[in-house]
Design goal:
The complex is a heterodimer of chains A (104) and B (196). Helices cover 53% and strands 17% of the residues of chain A. Chain A has 104 residues and is α+β, with helices and mostly antiparallel strands. Chain A has a three-stranded antiparallel β-sheet. In chain A, helix 1 crosses helix 2. Chain A is globular, with a radius of gyration of 15 Å. Chain B is an all-alpha fold and 196 residues long. In chain B, 82% of the residues lie in helices and 0% in strands. Chain B has nine helices and no strands. Chain B has helices at residues 3-12, 18-41, 46-57, 60-70, 74-83, 88-103, 107-129, 133-158, 163-190. Classes of the chains: A alpha+beta (104), B mainly alpha (196). At the A-B interface, helix 2, helix 3 and strand 3 of A face helix 2 and helix 4 of B.
């Protein structure tokens, strides 16, 4: 399934469980969607850097097993943005369910 | 680094400034190493594992377009360096002109030129210390407002029926400021990621 546009929100959701690095974020999204949401991992990093530029997440470099990793964490602004995105998603999915469920 | 990965990274980081290129390369090399390890654990040989890890990254051209949206390109960095370049001579000349105008009885015009000179000195200082670049970009129209206000005051003290001229000065400032914010809004955002 094409993730275009939804990837930043999914990243924020994954990071709401705690700081994480790129590879782990990608695997978490794939695992939690049971493989339905698949995406090219090269697009994950521009999305992460975009969120960082917007101040929604912050990065910290950590040395792990002799390698430098950039670990990302949600900022306060990111938490607020995620809250708003969740509410918007509930509203939108509710509306679509109403139509597809034929309750109108 | 594997040749396939090297090529992928070269395309994905094309035209970006060198600091961002280096940061992205390190981050993606670590990512690919994790992916290769996972494939090796799943029973693939090293060649297959590396090939799959690179395939999973997707199209490097698409990644490059997205990276350019968030990182300063070389051209943008050169533009910034030119803007905050070594303007010592201009700053000194304009400040000198300001003093001359002040002494010749045009205090508002002098003040206007002095603000311009100070702004140039500020840009030199900012570039030397690599601090407050974002604030300077954002506040430049405010400083220009002071410059234009000086011109405006000069007009209003030297001419009669000058409302039209004052409106023209105000409109010109507004146009310059809008152009400025439009031109530098993208760079302003990208500076969050550019720390050197």
């Amino acid at each position: 399934m094409n993730l275009k546009g939804a990837l930043p929100t999914l990243i924020l959701e994954v990071l709401s469980n705690g700081p994480s690095h790129g590879y782990e974020i990608a695997q978490t999204i794939k695992r939690r969607s049971e493989g339905v949401l698949d995406f090219k991992e090269g697009t994950l990093y521009p999305a992460l850097h975009g969120l960082e530029a917007d101040g929604l997440i912050e990065a910290e470099e950590v040395i792990e097993g002799g390698r430098t990793r950039r670990c990302y964490a949600l900022t306060r602004k990111g938490k607020n943005a995620l809250k708003a995105e969740r509410a918007e998603w509930q509203r939108l999915s509710g509306a679509i369910n109403n139509i597809l469920g034929g309750t109108a | 680094v594997n040749d396939g990965l090297k090529n992928w990274l070269e395309v994905a980081t094309k035209n970006l400034n060198t600091v961002s290129q280096q940061q992205i390369r390190v981050e993606l090399e670590t990512h690919v190493q994790d992916a290769v390890n996972a494939h090796l654990s799943a029973g693939q040989n090293l060649e297959q594992a590396m090939q799959n890890a690179i395939l999973e990254l997707g199209d490097p051209t698409q990644a490059n377009q997205q990276f350019q949206h968030n990182h300063l390109t070389r051209t943008e960095l050169a533009r910034l360096e030119k803007l905050f370049g070594q303007h010592w001579v201009h700053a000194i000349l304009i400040s000198g002109l300001a003093m001359l105008l002040h002494l010749q009885g045009s205090p508002w015009l002098g003040a206007s030129y002095l603000t311009l000179g100070l702004e140039l000195f500020m840009r030199v200082w900012i570039m030397r210390h690599r601090r407050w670049i974002r604030a300077a970009l954002m506040l430049r129209p405010v400083l220009l407002a002071l410059v234009f206000a000086g011109f405006g005051m000069h007009i209003s003290t030297t001419r009669h029926n000058n409302v039209g001229m004052l409106l023209a000065v105000g409109a010109f400032w507004l146009l310059v400021s809008l152009w400025w914010w439009h031109s530098y809004a993208g760079i302003y955002r990208k500076l969050t990621l550019h720390r050197s």
